[in-house]
Amino acid sequence: MKTKKLFGLTLLFIAATLLTACGGGSGTTNKTPLEITKELCSYFEKGDYETCLKKQMEYLIDDGNKLTGKQLQDFIQDAVKLFTEESDKGGGYKKIEIKEDEENNDSIAYIHMFCQYNDDSYFENWYTFVKTERGWRIKNVGNR
After folding, report:
1. Which of the residues 27, 28, 46, 139 has an alpha carbon 20 to 30 A from that of 61?
2. Is the Cα torsion angle 110, 113, 18, 59 positive or negative in sign?
3. Sign of the dihedral through C-alpha 37, 39, 45, 47
4. What is the 3-state secondary structure (H, E, C) of 104-131?
């Protein structure tokens, strides 16, 4: 099996979190970290990267800074282009696996996402969630 990691996609997930983390969604959610990650990955697996990124922003911690307007639109457009190119290059998705970490507790949770393409290249991310008064929120995406 070819084990080429697609660092560009991992870095893009990290950038998406860092650049938009500050604008976390309004409202509350009763969803668990695993449910949130499965929702995001369902869009990703279908190739609906724009919805995936926008939904991810809804679940991010709000720390007061965020991309808006044209900057946000440009970022999403560039991210969608990169995700599409990587998927096409890898021949589409073979499988996406999502697993909870055994260290999860009532205030922090780690979810591992592994995405393998049909050419056996892959990338993986860890979602770090924290429990807030508005429910579970994404604190970080990237390596654990």
Report:
1. 46
2. negative
3. negative
4. CCCCEEEEEEEEEECCCCEEEEEEEEEE
Compare 64 and 55 and report the one with higher pLDDT: 55
List, in sequence order, the alpha helices (H) in the chain.
7-20, 33-46, 49-58, 69-89
pLDDT band of residue 22 (cuts 50, 70, 90) is: very low
Give CA 82 to chain center in angstroms. 14
Domain ranges for the chain, please list them.
Answer: 7-142
The amino acid that residue 61 corresponds to is I
> Looking at the domain covering 7-142, what would its CATH class be?
alpha beta
Tokens 């998406």 correspond to 16
pTM of the predicted structure, to 2 decimals: 0.78
The one-letter amino acid at 103: E
